[in-house]
Amino acid sequence: MMSDKFGNVPRVEHYARMVDMLGRAGKLHEAREFIESATIDHGMCLWRILLSACRNFRNYELGAYAGEKLMELGSQESSAYVLFSSIYVALGRLEDVERVRGMMRLRGVNKEPGCSWIELKDGVHVFVVGDKMHPKIKVIHEELRILSK
């Protein structure tokens, strides 16, 4: 229709925007049908958008379907694996959670560690998950222990 009416050939960006709009409107099954009828090679982009929309609208069954499509296509995006496994957690499918995490390890996909920073009078302090190199790490952990009581 777009090419007939306006002379423009739809690209992946157009398809992505359409899936995003359908997803934001909660029309998740329509988005799936749109993806499956796509006539272009969209890689994994459209399934990733649908996966996110399914999580937002708590349609975990359709989210699992979209996640499986991403895994079939060999996604290397760590956020897709994390989102997909959280959908299986919500469904109570713990064996599938472990399967997705195992697939992530097998494919060498790594999640970026969390990072935060704070500026205090004596400078900027950067914290990375699992990092024990901060010069005041013992004091920080002691303070956190006190605060969490």
Structural class: mainly alpha
Radius of gyration equals 21 Å
As a percent range, the share of strand residues is: 5-15%
> How far apart are the termini?
62 Å
Largest beta sheet, briefly? 2 strands, antiparallel
| Uncertain residue ranges | none
Mean pLDDT: 90
One letter per element, helices H and strands E, the order comes to HHHHHHHEEH
**Share of residues in helices:** 55-70%
- What's the total number of strands? 2
Tell me the strand order in the biggest sheet.
1-2
**Count of runs of 4 or more consecutive helical residues:** 8
Anisotropy-based shape: elongated
Folded structure, characterized:
The protein has helices spanning 2-6, 12-24, 28-36, 45-56, 60-72, 78-91, 94-106, 137-147, and strands at 115-120, 123-128. The protein has 149 residues and is mainly alpha-helical. A two-stranded antiparallel sheet has the order 1-2. The longest helix has 14 residues, at 78-91. The radius of gyration is 21 Å and the shape is elongated. The model has no long low-confidence stretch (mean pLDDT 90).
